[in-house]
Amino acid sequence: MSSGDEQDFMVLERRLQAMRERTFVGREEELGVFRSALRGACSVLYVHGPGGVGKSALLRRFEQEAKAAGRPVTTLNAYTLEPTPAVFEAEAGSVLGDERGVLIIDTFERVQGLEGWLRERLLPRLPVGALVVVAGRIAPDLLWAADPGWAEALRVLPLRDLAPADAAALLDVRGVADDLRGQLLAFAGGHPLTLSLGAAVAVKDRGASSRWTPARDVISTLLDQLVGEVPSAAHRHALEVCAHSYVTTEDLLREILPDDATALFAWLRRLPFVESSRLGLFPHDVVREVLEADLRWRDPQGYADMHRRITAFLADRTRVTSDAEVLGAVGSLFYVYRVVGSTAEFHSWRGDGEVYEDAFRPEDAEALARMASEVENDESGTAVAYWTARQPQAFRLYRRAETGELVGFCSWLRLYEPSEEEARIDPIVATAWANARAMAPLRPGEHLAVGRTWVRAEYSDASPVTDLIQWRAVGYCLRADRMAWSFMAMRDDDPMRDYLRTYDMHDVGEHAWLGNTEYALFAHDWRAVAAQAWLDRLDRLLLEGAQEAVAVPASSMAVLSQADFADAVRKALRHLSRPRELAANPLTRTRIVVEHGGTDPAKALRDLIEQAIGRLSGDPRADKFHRALVTTYLRGAPTQEAAAERLGLPFTTYRRHLAAGIERVCEELWHHEIYGAVDG
């Protein structure tokens, strides 16, 4: 190389170094730890963190600091080393003879198998005063901590994302326009690599809008850097499940990957970008987003299949879990719908830890009434005092974990019949009854529910309190037995109104006034659109981007009065052998047929009627009714007179038996409609 070429090279090197220094932000705490280590606070500094979190940039800064302090520095990138003790010592051995030497090892995960040898054989030979910095994705083995000899000699330094102010500063020095920073920060958070890649794209694309999203090449780069190679397709699928789910447990993995769940869960648990909580495993936000984006682009059908299997598992868990576990189950279920509509605006996804749900106790009554008066008005406080005395089980309280302070509460009143006293004390309840009667009245055994919330102003926007309250509401609706209507009372200025429409809950009928405050009642008829149909609609919104009209409630099932239901059963009996007429029967859109399953509602209705007739044969007192029904409707007697003749009965006796049999079939199917499937 000529002197001119060498000079040009040195100029470029200085320019690169200057740019790196200019774009290095934050990390004051980590730099402080390193400066203490240079002064002898420890002999080994072990830095670990997920890919792209800025380990290499920090190590370059460490190198500058050490050189500025007059310390000789040896820097190794384990990516280029053969993972053997001999090669490693040959490259790093100079530090063993220099008490002021500093050895910096990057990408140590590439030679992680040498960790035991490093700890037991090489590092103990360091001269006092020398410093070794090890940096990799994987946290140090627990054997370091188990050895008391390393207690003072080793300092472990986990490297996390940049603080919000430092992340914003990074975008500033990279020249990102003000109107793009919010969207970039929302996607990247404080992850340095993602911020840098996004900044490079945003600066280059002057036509980018405030709705910036990462392009395919950015996602591909992030996947390579953050995740790297995985051992198998099953491991990749486990990662994708982990990315889609709020938290991943071994039983969830077992549902999706039954043959390898235990081993895959253990593998996920060891990944540097996967963390653990009391609920399960979850990945770094950026890893989650790039895996999600890649799978949706690369394999849309595979993504949809995985989503539906996960939601089926979580929905079933929500229905059967204990009351104490409902919030975690619903939170996990709702997280998979986090990009539907305006969901993200009204969830913080911080509902675990900062606040907690508490049961109502009689001594809480006064505090709840007082909060309701403060948050809304005195009439609201009066209504709360009334209901805490009559339905204490309807209330849930939300407290700050740090102090136990009450910061919000909700109620879900379960109501079976109107009451003049309740209507006088609580106009919201009176209006709910009026709206239900006007649209689709309750049937025997059904109830309606009225939900309300009260939250301190500092938690009224998306917060851990509103997260938990929403999860409790969804849990109530998905688990309630024979609930006809749910009504959510919302103040007229509440920003969540559009959010509720997204979830098929609509401002219906009359509004209520409590004091000087107007309330809209957002309703859902769970007989018309049952829980599974409600979740299926959310699946379509997520997977297909379906633009359903949100101004009109969906209706997929018919809600019939008992008289109309019985009339439809009689018509269905007459049309059992005529599929076209049977398909037009309103019973094909009722709960009994929809829950029976299958793709042919007419066949399902015929099966249900035949089963109901068949069950009469098991009752000796109803055997004559059974024979009348079978002869008339299943064996095709041309007329009732012919049916009576076949049975050898006088016509009036036959008609009495037939009428009694029809009545029994109507009663059984009605019971099935209202209370669920008949056993046996």
UniProtKB/TrEMBL annotation:
Point out the coiled-coil segments of this chain. none
* Molecular functions per Gene Ontology: ATP binding
What keyword terms does UniProt attach to this protein?
ATP-binding, Nucleotide-binding
Q: Does the record carry Protein biosynthesis as a key word?
A: no
Q: Which residues form the Orc1-like AAA ATPase domain?
A: 23-73
Provide the protein name: ATP-binding protein
Q: Which organism is it from?
A: Nonomuraea mangrovi
**What high-level taxonomic lineage is stated for the organism?**
Bacteria, Bacillati, Actinomycetota, Actinomycetes, Streptosporangiales
